[in-house]
Amino acid sequence: MTDQPFRAGFLLFPKLTQLDMTGPYEVLARLPGAQVHLIWKTREPVPSDHGMAIVPTATFDACPALDLICVPGGPGVGPLMSDGAVLAFLRRAAEEARYVTSVCTGSLALGAAGLLRGRKAACHWMSRPLLSSFGAEPTDERVVWDGTLVTGGGVTAGIDFALQIAAEVAGADTARAIQLGIEYDPAPPFDAGSPERAGPALVEAITRRAATRQRERADQVAEAAAALRAAE
Questions:
Q1: pLDDT, tens only, 60-112
Q2: Which of 63, 70, 104, 123 is catalytic?
Q3: Could you tell me which of 44, 42, 45, 54 has the C-alpha nearest to residue 18?
Q4: Using CA atoms, how far apart are residues 127 and 217, in angstroms rounded to an integer?
Q5: CATH topology (fold) of 7-231
Q6: Domain ranges of the chain
Q7: What is the pTM of this model?
């Protein structure tokens, strides 16, 4: 790692899933000399999907150049895909960043910004097929690297992606020390963390419960993809 600070930025937005952001935040904030910015249009607190208020530390206009930009996911990702200010910020940040990253459905926002065409990318399993609307190649791996693009699958995959980034930036020994420091040693009580292992009955129940949201999200993706094509 150089003497220059590693500047990581996380996009905030209403109804984000906080663990998409706070998981990798906890890892990257422990890098030696790291500077981590929480970015939104204003400095007003931003509510997560379950009401946790997160306070931005920088606005789009005041955000410094970043080494890493990360877009978390959540129910609020839909409006981002048609938000001109958000998409412009993501394009600008991606031009300067060493790593362009996302967790969960945050990759859909990267797609709407035109940053996924021809690239492999991950997403939450329920929304993964929607990536193809943006010219991406949906991949079911937990963390997907495609050059400087690094995308994580659903929610908890953000911790895994951040540890890989930490190893890239500061070396494997530092990444291991961070992992030990946060005691990241998953031992889930149930083997139900992926649709492949959860079983068809549970997958069907979860999918049925999310059907309305997923239909709305598919419509939002279709509109964003059409707008992207029209702008090119």
A1: 999 999 999 999 999 999 999 999 999 999 999 999 999 999 999 999 999 99
A2: 104
A3: 54
A4: 8
A5: Rossmann fold (3.40.50)
A6: 7-231
A7: 0.95
